[in-house]
Write a structure and sequence with these properties.
19% strand; 14 strands; two-stranded antiparallel ribbon; disordered C terminus; 10-stranded mixed sheet; 418 residues; TIM Barrel; alpha/beta; 9 helices; disordered N terminus; single chain
């Protein structure tokens, strides 16, 4: 059930609410009849046009947009900038003025509500080491894909945080440290900007941008609830994927969430990136807390729903995790998934050629090496595919998002919520 809205809020931001929560908030605060509030919500989310009434979209402006040609279409990276008053992250019930491009809007924030059995989101504190003059940017990428029918669709890669606390050595975002987590409206705002400002309606949404989604679990799940709402964005939950570096506590919590009606097909992706614990601990500090055996077990426990496979991402880094002997180790890790469901694989390896971060000690792998490694995996009996590289030149590919001017690492102990 949605939480009640605060008494007499200045306005409601529809990007922070599901339609049910939005209507309840408007009703509780005596702002509008249910039918009026619901129609306003539908029109704002579906058309991007503001509606008369006590509701306004709060959206950080797009301050930069880059495009790069790929064989499947234009890759679009766009950057939204948080205002100085948002540096520490708005608290529950706070009012934060924002501006947006396109049809002009100025509005305030609204109380964040819980979804189903989740507690209300708690924004993370900012990083005091970051200069007050450094802009905080949200980076998102629209990735074109051409399917078997020859039709082009787009996948939107969204960020869940500004920066990241996980410290993976190969990732650009990790060099920033954790600045702060994003609120649900800031996460949904990336979809809103793509759809209604840039003019591209994404078919799929992947939480694979800046940040570790499980470190901002409550806000991420509230954002998913808003995105899949049939009265608004109406993105099928089966087209939404949450990616994690291996927060086992977060995976377990998400496993409980997808048991709820309307959540069954929410997808999980795990960034494995290593054939054994020694390599993984060296490049991904999270492995020192939860090792590969524990990861394998929690993935085998993942609830089974029709067609729902766990995606295991493997970033191929030259000289780190691409040796011939690593093939057998990966195959051993994947073996239990192969026969988990009457011979149908329950997980697949998504091979990702490394995209060098700034000042990276490693180059990108050659195309020949990628194809050779993929072929060896398949020959070893691993259900594997590869991800085509898109957006590398503009620092918009996997592992390349992050502001170059923020490079002050802050080690943060993992927490399940923001």
């Amino acid at each position: 059930m949605p939480r009640p809205a605060p008494h007499n809020p200045a306005s409601l931001d529809p990007l922070a609410y599901t339609s049910e929560q939005f209507v309840a908030a408007a009703n509780t605060a005596n702002l509008a009849p249910a039918s009026t509030a619901l129609e306003a919500y539908r029109q704002i989310l579906r058309t991007g046009i503001d509606q008369p009434g006590p509701w306004k979209v709060a959206l950080p402006p797009i301050v930069n947009k880059l495009q790069e040609t790929s064989p499947e279409g234009e890759v679009v990276k766009f950057v939204q900038r948080l205002s100085p008053s948002q540096r520490e992250g708005p608290g529950v019930g706070s009012s934060v003025p924002l501006q947006r491009e396109g049809p002009g809007v100025r509005s305030s924030g609204a109380e964040l509500s819980q979804v189903n059995d989740l507690p209300p989101p708690i924004p993370a504190p900012g990083n005091p080491r970051i200069s007050k003059d450094s802009p905080l940017d949200i980076e998102s990428v629209l990735i074109p894909m051409i399917g078997s029918a020859g039709l082009r669709t787009y996948t939107l890669c969204v960020s869940s945080q500004v920066g990241c606390a996980m410290g993976c050595t190969f990732c650009e975002t990790a060099q920033m440290g954790l600045i702060r987590s994003l609120t649900p409206s800031e996460i949904v705002g990336q979809w809103f900007a793509a759809r209604h400002i840039i003019g591209i309606a994404p078919k799929n949404i992947v939480f694979m941008g800046m940040g570790e989604p499980m470190d901002n679990y409550d806000n991420v799940m509230q954002a998913v609830a808003i995105l899949k709402d049939h009265n608004g964005a109406s993105v099928p939950v089966s087209n939404i994927t949450i990616s994690t570096v291996g927060r086992i506590d977060g995976i377990r919590r998400m496993a409980e969430q997808i048991k709820h009606k309307g959540w069954h097909r929410l997808n999980l992706a795990l960034s494995l990136n290593a054939p054994n614990d020694d390599v993984r601990s060296a490049i991904m500090p999270i492995n020192r807390r939860w090792n590969m055996s524990e990861l394998q077990q929690v993935l085998l426990e993942w609830p089974k729903f029709a067609g729902n496979k766990v995606c295991i991402e493997y970033v191929l880094i030259p000289g780190v995790n691409d040796a011939p002997e690593h093939i057998a180790q990966i195959a051993a890790f994947m073996l239990p998934f192969k026969f988990f469901d009457k011979g149908k694989p329950r997980a697949l390896i998504n091979l990702i050629p490394y995209n060098p971060r700034r000042n990276s000690p490693w180059p990108a792998p050659t195309e020949e090496k990628v194809e050779q490694f993929l072929g060896a995996l398949i020959e070893a009996g691993v259900f594997a595919k590869r991800r085509r590289t898109k957006g590398r030149a503009m620092m918009g590919a996997c592992g390349q998002l992050g502001a170059a001017h923020i490079r002050q690492r802050r080690l943060v102990q993992p927490t399940i919520s923001a």
